[in-house]
């Protein structure tokens, strides 16, 4: 997947246009963004080392390149190889159609399939944190059936029915207290990502240092903070993350009260999040021209709740 192009919110805004055209109602929200940005904000109280800059595509690519160019520890795999292992786990775990509709040849030949990170499925949700209304978009991996007769299933025919998403993750098998703490910190991101989109289940594939799948663990998303607090090292607190995010969004709404292009930034190892205005007018191409024209043509749209 080549994501070096800066697409901003284009595909997310296209989805909102389509929904508003079909319903005749305007989607009301205080914040419209991708899940990845909200994940960074929500993890801020327990992630002092990493920085972020909202809507700075060059910074995102620079950070990724720097991470991939890091020399791995002796005997450790590279970032690119570990990314491949994650995509391979998804390839082995997923089917393009329900089990009953998938050929035996396809099921048994998954080990030989070429890994492809281009195909993605995005879920868009309306949710709220504190007093703030959010519209978030993010990639989801699969739908998990509640039926005991069928493990994997397709999305429901009715668009309004809830979708029982499942998130697939990989992690190194913990072998020491240090490994357990490292995995627990990973669980923070796993939990936030699934919490924000309403994904109820996470399946973690534990691998050896050589990338060999050794075991699986199914986690209920809403139980992860309790497990970390009661059975883990207690390195983070889910309630604190939610309360921080609610307070931050309230503060953000009270700060960004004028037009122009604003930026949210947290420097590496910093303990503060900065918000400042870059441009006095315009939207810096963050809003697509298609969305701007659609909203200007349709002021008569009703308001959704």
Question: TL;DR?
Answer:
The chain has 305 residues and is of the alpha/beta class.
Describe this structure in words.
With 305 residues, the chain is an alpha/beta fold. Helices cover 36% and strands 21% of the residues. Strand 4 and strand 5 form a beta hairpin. The chain is globular, with a radius of gyration of 21 Å. The chain starts with 9 loop residues before the first helix and ends with a strand.
Throw out a few tags for this protein:
9 helices; 305 residues; alpha/beta; 12 strands; four-stranded mixed β-sheet; three-stranded mixed β-sheet; single chain; globular
Task: Tell me roughly what share of residues is in helical segments.
Answer: 25-40%
Uncertain residue ranges: 146-152
Number of helices: 9
Structural class: alpha/beta
Helices and strands, with pairings:
Layout: H1 10-23, E1 25-26, E2 31-34, H2 35-43, E3 52-53, H3 57-69, H4 79-93, H5 104-108, E4 121-129, E5 132-140, E6 142-143, E7 165-172, H6 177-197, E8 201-207, E9 213-220, H7 224-230, H8 238-255, E10 261-266, E11 274-279, H9 289-297, E12 302-303
Parallel strand pairs: 1-12, 2-5, 7-8
Antiparallel strand pairs: 3-10, 4-5, 6-7, 8-9, 10-11
Helix pairs in contact: 2-6
